[in-house]
Amino acid sequence: MSKQRPTIADVAHRAGVSKGAVSFALNGRPGLAQATVDKILAAADELGWRPSNRGRSLSVSKAFALGLVITRDPAVLSSDPFFPAFIAGVESVLSSRGQALVLQVVMAGEEEEAGYRRLAQDARVDGVFLSDLRHDDPRIPLLEELGLPAVTLNRPDGTSPFPAVILDDRPGTAAVVEHLVELGHTRIAHVGGPPAFVHATARSTALLSTLAAAGLEPVAVETSDFTAAGGIEATRRLLTLPQPPTAIVYANDRMAIAGLGAAQAAGLTVPDDLSIAGFDDSELAEYVHPGLTTVRADPFAFGEAAARTLNLVVDGATDVPDAELPPAQLVVRRSTGAPPSLGSPSPA
Amino acid sequence: MSKQRPTIADVAHRAGVSKGAVSFALNGRPGLAQATVDKILAAADELGWRPSNRGRSLSVSKAFALGLVITRDPAVLSSDPFFPAFIAGVESVLSSRGQALVLQVVMAGEEEEAGYRRLAQDARVDGVFLSDLRHDDPRIPLLEELGLPAVTLNRPDGTSPFPAVILDDRPGTAAVVEHLVELGHTRIAHVGGPPAFVHATARSTALLSTLAAAGLEPVAVETSDFTAAGGIEATRRLLTLPQPPTAIVYANDRMAIAGLGAAQAAGLTVPDDLSIAGFDDSELAEYVHPGLTTVRADPFAFGEAAARTLNLVVDGATDVPDAELPPAQLVVRRSTGAPPSLGSPSPA
DNA sequence: AGAGCTATCTAAACCGGTTTAAACAGTGCA
DNA sequence: TGCACTGTTTAAACCGGTTTAGATAGCTCT
C-alpha cells in the first residue's frame, strides 16, 4: 500500500500543517517559524519525500532540463571526441542542481530545425547549447523566434542575443604553425574543415595569418569535412602535388590520423619526409605511431562553463557576460620534425 | 497577448466543447461523434495547439522520456565509438513517438548507483538502457528495487527481469581467429577488456574456444581496459615475451590501433612481423596504416532495436521477447597477413 | 478595551492535461 | 405516456506541486 511515493500532502498531514507550508519550508521561503520548518523537514525526511519534478514543472513552467542537439551528418561529427567530455562537464554542473540533459541527435538540414522546434514546443528543456556554429547560423534567429534561451559554443559571426562560451582555437593553431616554421618548414599545407563552420574558418584563418606573419604562403589549402575519409582524400591530393608540402596541418585529429595513414601508405616516413599536426588531442593522438603533434583544449571545462552560463540565462539573469576559457595549447609529439631538405639533400 | 501557447481550454472554447471532449478527440477515444472530432481537430489546428508535455506528464504519470546512463570511468568507455551511433538509433525511434532521451554521464562506483536513483526518484524517465553489463551486475537488482523498467544491451549472466537486446559478438570474434589460423598463425595472443564486463569475457572466451577448436592455445592473454593507453601497455608486454606472438587480437579498436602504434614504434612491420585485429570497426580502423582488420557491428540498428524493445516494456507489455540482431561481421583489411615464419625464415 | 501591527499559517486557485461519473438528448418499445 | 437504452457530451475531480489572498493569533500602544 505505502509503496507509492509520498506527496506533499502526505508530508503536510504528517507535520500537521498545510501543503503551502511544506512548500514554503522546502523552498526556504520566509514567513514560517523556525520550529515549524524543522518539524516539516523532519516529516519530509521520515517519509523520504522528494518533490515531484512533474508537479513542479507544471506549476512553475520550467523543465529543469537543458538540451543539446547534435547534428549528425554522415559526413560530419559522427564520432567527435569533443562531445563525450563536453557532456561530462555539462553533467557535472547539472547533477548538483537536479537538472537533466536531454540529448537529441538529428540529421543536418530540415530535420535539425525540426529538432529545435520540437524541443521548444514540447517545452522539454529550459535552454539549449548551440554547438558547431555556422556562419550566419540559422539556428540563432530560430531560437530567438522560439524564445528558447541558449548559449553559443564560441562566438558566432553575426549578432547574437545569446552569451557565448569561448575557447579560442587560434592561439593553438598559431602555435602549431610557429612550431613548424621554427623547425624550418617553408612548404606548409593545410587541410581545413567545412568552411560553413565558424570554428573551421577560424582555424584556417589563424593558420594563414600566422604563416603570413612568418613571411610564408601555404603550399595549398584543402577543404575537407573533418572525417577520416575526407582526411585521406585531401592528403592524397596534397601528396601528388608537383611540389608537395613538407608539413600538413589538419583542422582535427581524425583527419590528421587518417592523413598519417595515407602518408605511410604512400611510402613516406613521418616526420622525416612529412610532418603532420592535428587538432583536438583525441585519445589516439598520443598512441598512434608516431605520436601526433596536436592542440589540446579542455572540453570538460568547456562543458562546465557552458552549463553554468546557460543556467544564468535560464534563471533569468540579463546581460550574462561571455565566459572565456584558457585557449587550447600546443602538444608537440613525434609526428613533426625538421623538413627533409634540411636533414638530407632534397631529391630534386 | 496571444503570444502564449494555447492550452486545451482555448481549443475547447474555440470548438465550443468541453476540455474533456478535446482530450478524447486528441487521443482517438471512442464516444465522440465524428463531426465533433473534426470540429475539435480543426480548432486545434487553427490554434496550432500541441498538448503540453508537462500537463500530460503529471496526469498520466509518465515522463515520455527514456534514459541512458553512461558510466564514464577515466579508464573505460571515455570515447567509445559505439555510443554516438547507438544514440542516433535510439533517437530515430524516440523522435517519432515524441519521446526524449535523457543522458546521464557518471563516474563508476557509487555515483553510478546514485545516477540511476536520481533518474528514478525524479521520475525523469520511463525506462533505461542498461549498457556495458557487468557480471552479477548490481544495477539489475537496483533497477528492480526502484521499479524502473529497463532493457539490457546483450544478455546478462544472472537472472534478469528485463528483456535483452542482443548483438552477438562471438561469431565475429570466432571469425577473426579462424581468419588468423587460416593465414597460418599458431602463436596468437589476446588483449581483452576488463573481465568485470560481460561483453569483455564473452569476446575472450569466444576467442579461446575458437582457438581450442583449431587445436591451439593462446600465447598469452592480457587483460586491459579498452583504452589506448592500456592497449599500448599490454602490447609492450606481449612483444617482450621470450616467444612473442605473431598475431594479436584486441577486444576493441582503440586498443588495437594503439597496439599497432606500439608495434611500429618497436620497429615491427604490420602485418609482416605481426598481425593485428581489432573489434568495432570504428571510423579510423579503415584509415590507419595498415588498415585494421576488425569486426563490424551495427550500433545504429542496435539502438533502434533497444528503443523499440524498451518501449514495449514501458507501454506495459508483459513477457517482452528478447530482440536479436544480426551478429557482428569480420572485416579483413591489411593489418593481418601470413605469419613471418611462413613468408620468410624466422630470425631464431 | 479596542485599534493596529506583525508574525505565522491556511485555504483555495492555478499550472494543463486525463479520466470518471453523471447529465442529457434522442430513439425504440411496451 | 413512461421506461429503458444507446450515443454523445460535460462537469468536476485528480495528478503534485506553487503562489496569492486572507484568516488567525498574539502583541503593543493609546
From TrEMBL, chains A, B:
PROSITE patterns: HTH_LACI_1, HTH_LACI_2
Keywords: DNA-binding, Transcription, Transcription regulation
Keyword DNA-binding: yes
Annotated GO MF terms: DNA-binding transcription factor activity; transcription cis-regulatory region binding
All copies of domain HTH lacI-type, residue ranges: 6-60
Any matching Pfam family: Peripla_BP_3
PANTHER family hit by this protein: ALANINE RACEMASE (PTHR30146:SF155), LACI-RELATED TRANSCRIPTIONAL REPRESSOR (PTHR30146)
The name this protein goes by in its record: LacI family transcriptional regulator
Organism: Kribbella capetownensis
